[in-house]
Write a sequence for this structure.
């Protein structure tokens, strides 16, 4: 039986798959990129592009496996523009062929350096939402986001962004918070506003240095470091570009202070939207802050499906869509246990925390510290999260109350101006 002929049924609940159509292949050499190491896992880079049979089968069956009318496709890399426009013309054609009666959306994450008018025309015509990876002004962006020749990529990213603007393509920005920009939150935020970004994601870079276990493509180190209130100086074997915990908290707070006074309802920051959802009691939300995970998987170019984008390791391979139904893999006991472990392995220190409801322990990939009570599983960013969420609390509570009264959260800005809420400091 070919993969195209595998019978699909609707999954038990909505799920999301991030597709790596050209594997880890990329035209840049960003120093902090955790995905470039997958070259060791997949071998010969000439075979990384997803073949037509696998691509068509995936598009058809991903649509069939979704239990809701809305179907969201996500394309990432590596660098997906390396597949070429023709590749995605096929994607759209198959989506239209197999998606009758469904609402199809496409999100496309790119470094922007290869965008041209052909891409701009295509993305506008097919209504792609494009995420541009950019870390701020040139001086901070070019610290780690470099070409294969070691040169900064900022100018080329900006050129690609102008292509999107020229063709009126909807875009958002993804900013990696790292050692180079962690103390420059206001500058980064002002820059993003200046380039017309109204939707922003801030992703903390946390990468442990490989020990022998990691070199064998494992995940965890055998001797986790212990949490300390002075954890910006933790003795943790991390890469030099990893963000420091409290610095991450200060970075997000420096942006929140400006956003909550001037920009609510005008600019959208993923972390703030997710936090407001938590303050209103909404379940789920952004995967790193949800109670459980496991419904956001990653598909590699060869049809291999992994538990998560950050868990593309042999031990977390759920299966291959060429051999099994996507819905069976997503709903497998293996994947369900992976998702439940996020909550079941949470240490008591987290369960007793005043902001546990907001972060739920964060991403399991970053839960490698010992608690003060020597429990395993504390998130490296714990002190940053606690700082940010506690500082946000009065304003989140005010916005949640506005929503309960069927008013816009933007009303919080007026409350601050009227001094009914203290000005954030």
């Amino acid at each position: 039986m070919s993969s195209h002929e595998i019978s699909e049924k609707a999954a038990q609940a909505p799920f999301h798959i991030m597709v790596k159509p050209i594997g880890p292949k990329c035209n840049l050499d960003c120093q902090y990129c955790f995905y470039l190491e997958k070259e060791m896992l997949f071998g010969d880079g000439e075979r990384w592009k997803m073949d037509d049979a696998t691509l068509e089968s995936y598009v058809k069956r991903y649509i069939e496996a979704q239990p809701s009318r809305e179907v969201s496709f996500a394309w990432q890399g590596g660098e997906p523009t390396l597949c070429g426009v023709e590749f995605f013309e096929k994607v759209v054609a198959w989506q239209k062929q197999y998606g009758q009666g469904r609402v199809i959306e496409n999100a496309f994450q790119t470094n922007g350096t290869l965008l041209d008018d052909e891409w701009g025309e295509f993305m506008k015509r097919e209504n792609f939402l494009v995420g541009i990876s950019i870390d701020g002004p040139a001086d901070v962006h070019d610290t780690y986001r470099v070409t294969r020749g070691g040169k900064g990529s900022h100018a080329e990213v900006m050129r690609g962004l102008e292509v999107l603007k020229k063709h009126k393509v909807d875009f958002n920005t993804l900013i990696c918070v790292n050692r180079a920009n962690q103390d420059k939150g206001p500058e980064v935020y002002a820059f993003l506003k200046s380039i017309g970004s109204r939707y922003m994601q801030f992703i903390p870079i946390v990468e442990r240095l490989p020990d022998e276990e990691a070199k064998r493509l494992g995940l965890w180190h055998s001797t986790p470091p212990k949490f300390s209130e002075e954890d910006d100086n933790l003795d943790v074997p991390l890469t030099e570009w990893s963000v420091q915990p409290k610095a991450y908290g200060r970075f997000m707070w420096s942006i929140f202070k400006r956003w909550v006074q001037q920009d609510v309802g005008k600019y959208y920051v993923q972390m703030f939207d997710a936090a407001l959802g938590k303050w209103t009691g909404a379940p789920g939300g952004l995967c790193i802050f949800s109670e459980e995970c496991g419904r956001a998987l990653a598909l590699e170019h060869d049809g291999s499906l992994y538990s998560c984008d950050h868990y593309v390791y042999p031990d977390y391979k759920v299966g291959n869509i060429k051999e099994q139904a996507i819905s069976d893999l997503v709903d497998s006991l293996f994947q369900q246990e992976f998702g439940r472990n996020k909550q079941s392995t949470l240490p008591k220190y987290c369960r007793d925390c005043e902001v546990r409801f907001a972060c739920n322990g964060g991403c399991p990939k970053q839960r490698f510290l010992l608690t003060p009570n020597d429990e395993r599983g504390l998130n490296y960013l714990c002190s940053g999260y606690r700082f940010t969420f506690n500082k946000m609390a009065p304003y989140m509570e005010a916005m949640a109350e506005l929503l309960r009264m069927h008013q816009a959260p933007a009303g919080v800005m007026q409350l601050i101006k009227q001094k009914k809420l203290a000005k954030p400091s």
